[in-house]
Amino acid sequence: MTKTIVVKIGTSSLTQPETGQLALSTIATLAETLSHLRQQGNRVILVSSGAVGVGCARLGLTERPKAIALKQAVAAVGQGRLMRVYDDLFTTLQQPIAQVLLTRSDLVQRSRYLNVYNTFRELLALGVIPVVNENDTVAVDELKFGDNDTLSALVASLVEADWLFLLTDVDRLYSADPRSVPDARPISLVTSIKELADLQVQTGTQGSQWGTGGMVTKISAARIAIAAGVRTVITQGRFPSNITKIIQGELIGTHFQPQPEPTSARKRWIAYGLVPSGKLYLDSGAIAAIVQAGKSLLAAGIKTVGGEFEPQDAVQLLDTQGNEIARGLVNYSSNDLEKICGCHSKEIPTILGYIGAETVIHRDNLVLT
After folding, report:
1. Which residues bind substrate per the record (predicted)?
2. Residue list, annotated binding site
3. Which of 56, 78, 132, 144 could form a disulfide linkage to 51, CB 3.0–4.6 angstroms apart?
4. Tens digit of pLDDT for each residue in 306-350?
């Protein structure tokens, strides 16, 4: 049966840790594995990090640049080199590829989000393997994905993939970092969002010298993907051929079981595609109404408003401790919400001087996170 498979490979797997030079044997095996999957009729997308790391090696830089302008310049040098290597290897295997560079703003606007979806759909229908990376050359900090783990999960969600593979420098998820805690317990299967929340506390945030990721970003990516119904696997990047074995049923790496009833594509866009402009802190009654009863958010349940935003912007809904509960598209600006938070809906016209929506966020525009 044909599957849609998204594979993300990190800088730590693509490069030699000592020098930052490309690990060509790993990349060649990856190209062979993905080409074979494509020949079997599967739809395959590769999300590849490495542009900045390859650019550093190309320019003789001994550490990853921190200044945004320098990082963007180095990424421009590295991306061309990285695609040349991929194109040479995939061409040898008679597999066409395409470069797709994305920024967060490509997913923020609904029309552009749908355009990206249509581009992927056409490329996959043509039998092409899209090679995706964040467009580091033009991305600004406020509209960066931050890491390709998040990008790969959003792509997997967008195309409604069956599998997302996060290839990294450890063989699976552990209860602690096995490089510093010898008796760390390996974790083979994660079955619920609740387990993810528990695991997040136990993982380090540090990526490799040349990369930006870490295990926390992979768990966050898994949360996005499984909400979309995508089975997600963290496994060793040095052995890309394991991808085929895993699809055939071998329990290699850490598997994240997808939610049985995925959230709708539009709600996934609201939850993960948009960048929140503000925060609404809710009382316990409003949280219960949203989480347990699936209700809309009313002004009466809002305790505090944070940030500046306009109607139809995305906002985070938080409890009083600052834990995120949900996200949604708001019907009022932050200025107006400051005036009506904690008030009954029937008081809104009197306070604001106009008849607005009864709900601050309608349940159709609200998604639990």
Report:
1. 49, 136, 148
2. 8, 49, 136, 148, 168-169, 212-218
3. 78
4. 999 999 999 999 998 999 999 999 999 999 999 999 999 999 999
